[in-house]
Amino acid sequence: MVEDRRLAVLRAIVEDYVATEEPVGSKALVERHSLGVSPATVRNDMAALEDEGFIHQPHTSAGRVPTDKGYRLFVDRLTGVKPMSAAERRAITTLLDGAVDLDDVVRRSVRLLSQLTRQVAIVQYPTLSRSTVRHVELVSLTPTRVMVILILSTGRVEQRLVDLGAEIADEQLADLRTRVNQAAAGERIADATVALGRLPDEVVPETAVITREVVTALAEAMSDHRNDARVAVGGAANLARFGDNFDTAVRPLLEALEEHVVLLKLLGEATSGDAVTVRIGHEGPYSELSSTSVVATGYGPADQAFATLGVVGPTRMDYPGSMAAVRAVARYVSRILDEGHQ
Amino acid sequence: MVEDRRLAVLRAIVEDYVATEEPVGSKALVERHSLGVSPATVRNDMAALEDEGFIHQPHTSAGRVPTDKGYRLFVDRLTGVKPMSAAERRAITTLLDGAVDLDDVVRRSVRLLSQLTRQVAIVQYPTLSRSTVRHVELVSLTPTRVMVILILSTGRVEQRLVDLGAEIADEQLADLRTRVNQAAAGERIADATVALGRLPDEVVPETAVITREVVTALAEAMSDHRNDARVAVGGAANLARFGDNFDTAVRPLLEALEEHVVLLKLLGEATSGDAVTVRIGHEGPYSELSSTSVVATGYGPADQAFATLGVVGPTRMDYPGSMAAVRAVARYVSRILDEGHQ
DNA sequence: TCTGGCACTCGCTGAGCGTGAGTGCCAAGC
DNA sequence: GCTTGGCACTCACGCTCAGCGAGTGCCAGA
User: Fold this and answer.
1) Which of B166, B200, B224 delimits the end of a domain?
2) Which of A99, A121, A131, B306 could link A114 by a cystine bridge, Cβ 3.0 to 4.6 Å?
3) Confidence of residue A68 (pLDDT cuts 50, 70, 90)
4) If you average pLDDT over residues A203-218, what whole number do you get?
5) A41 nearest nucleotide via C1' and CA
């Protein structure tokens, strides 16, 4: 009844405001939407919505603008699942199927997401917690420095440069390589770390120190810490589209994009499980980003720990469209990872 | 004499304009610089400089602004080598010495450059033309898909996902791995490509197809094509500092930053050898970037093909400072790569 | 509960005006 | 032959102010 119409009015306000970027008035509203009532009625509803804090008037003789609370209600109760168009589906499949490796999947996903949503896209590199060690390679760069390369069953590769502090002969290195691989190959990360931890005690004392250095580097590479910290960002050029409020919106976001740790926090806190989550304006932890929203979700092969991906944009954004795009890309990427992981 | 003073006036104009971002007038000029002449004289010089096209007047009754030609003269004849401060040197060494691998060196360099110059920094990943193959790893993901991982002597790692089109047994894969490594390990890229090319003819016919797929992927990974196309970008937040002329300067640059191919062209054309090169405004190939300049240089271990790094910013930028920073970072990175390469 | 009418608010726009930084030119001086 | 002080001139910028119009709140009647 009345309550329903009020929600319809709110929805109409959000939609119009997102489309026009201008405060929307009662008259324009009835013209553009078939609400079946007069502007006066809409005005009453607007007054009520404003009392409840869903919309806000920039100044007396202006139209209304949704508040964060208004967007929240819109997102929670007023948006259905917006299906992707055929062209969009095609874009997703063709672009992502061409990926040659894991990094490429991530890079392409970022590009895809930013193009679909015309927002800034952020994709976290998948964590590797459940994967197993495929191979460890030790490459001698100088007599005292070794590059440790860890290859995982997912195809993910981690590298570490190790300064041994002492010279190592080629045979020693070969022996060490064999031992490390015997201990770690085929094992899950966690198990491999344990097995490797025992290695220094098993070798002849002279090489114990060197072994320890290598094992430490491997352990570090395996702790997904640094992996967690890696994100790909794309579509920053889309920021150009909201050229107004440059200082309040664009600048802080541009700064945040440089700080990958901040981005991860942004993505991480917005996400729970594999549902698409939306965080609107001030709901986030950063006051400087109070006029930006985050739409994010977890993704990953079914049996693996989640990574997250999503988009960041102005609170005045196309939530249904962004949510649909984020969901679709996450699903498709998950499927690719699932295949790759068998 | 007169000519000398005119150049001094040009230098003063450039310096003041870079500092204040405002057209500079004759009076302000004599106040801030000890030119030893009166404003009237400076005005005469300015008129001459304007006739020659080195400076320009936005409108009558305004001060003068350097033209691209003026900046060019400034860069070519009026800037000495500006030494880095002790603090800056320290920043370079401490930040770069902490790098764990090649990718990390690049990432840190970008960060460093953008912080030193307060501009957008771009670093191309080093090419690998002269390096040798250290190891090739084949990881079976599904019965018909294999991840090919190429490890080079520089520590660089390339991955390719290969769809074999047919199933491959574990023993077959192990055999193939051995053969590939026997053919390629220790060889230079070019030689390895040749040796690998012969492989499909040497194996039993049943595995020839599969072998060919793998070899093709390796050859692709070794051609430095995709490597060349990789760049790291940082400091986009610095764009926020020139909030004026958002549309003419910030937006096109932001868009260019997304297009790594464009960036490479930008860097590449600006660079020749290991000298720091400056390209100013319209001198570049992109008309949209006519109000930005590029300061770039080649870098890399002495015996290797060059990669490039540099900064991009408004034509109104601190050229001496940027050139010094670019030169210093390039040198230090080259040294690190030299060590790593022994 | 909805609607039409009406008075009111107030940001936006554009015109008009004063101010001052900066110029170009000229005649006198070193 | 440069350099300099003086002087008239130009013109962007900032300010004020009035008119416009979109939009509102309220009220009385359907």
Assistant:
1) B224
2) A121
3) very high
4) 84
5) C2
In a domain, B65, yes or no: yes
CATH code of the domain in which B198 resides: 3.30.390.10
Instruction: Confirm or reject contact between B142 and chain A (CB < 8 A).
Output: yes
Residue A298 to residue A310: CA distance in whole angstroms? 9
Domain-terminating residue out of A224, A256, A277: A224
Is A260 at the interface with chain B, CB within 8 A? no
* Contact A339/B at CB under 8 A: yes
Same domain, A232 and A281: yes
Same domain assignment for residues A107 and A248: yes
- At residue A342, the pLDDT reads 40
Enumerate the β-bridge partners of residue B120.
B312
| DSSP SS3 for B318 | coil
Specify the 3-state DSSP secondary structure of A98. Answer: coil
Alpha carbon of B195: minimum distance to chain A alpha carbons (Å) = 22
Tell me how far CA of residue A243 lies from CA of A250, A290, B238, in angstroms.
8, 17, 16
> Which residue from A135, A234, A247 is facing B258, i.e. has the nearest CB?
A234
CATH of the domain at B276: 3.30.450.40
Q: A95 and A64: one domain?
A: no
Residues A118 and A237 in one domain: yes
For residue A155, give the nearest of B135, B147, B340 by CB distance: B147
Residue type, position A211, single letter = T
Residues with Cβ within 8 Å of residue B183, at least 6 apart in sequence: B192, B195, B196, B198, B199
Residues B137 and B284 in one domain: no
pLDDT in tens, B121-131: 999 987 655 67
Considering only residues B283 and B161, tell me which one the structure prediction assigns the higher pLDDT.
B283
CA distances B194 to A93, B63, B162, B188, B217, Å, are: 35, 64, 20, 10, 14
pLDDT tens by residue, A89-108: 999 999 888 777 777 889 89
Instruction: Calculate the average pLDDT of chain A.
Output: 85
Straight-line distance from CA A138 to C1' C2, in Å? 81
Pair A262, A180 in one domain: no
The pTM for the full model equals 0.77
Regarding whether B307 and B160 lie in a shared domain, the answer is no
* C-alpha–C-alpha distance, residues B92 and B108, integer Å: 9
What pLDDT sits at residue A228?
A: 56
Q: Is the domain of B101 the same as that of B49?
A: no
- Listed range (A88-92, A172-176, B299-303) with the worst mean pLDDT: B299-303
List of residues 6+ apart from A185 with CB closer than 8 A: A133, A134, A135, A136
**How does pLDDT run across A222-249, given as a tens digit for each residue?**
775 455 568 899 998 888 776 566 777 7
Q: Which domain holds residue B20?
A: 2-76
C1' nearest to CA of A27: which nucleotide? D23
- Tally the domains of chain B: 3
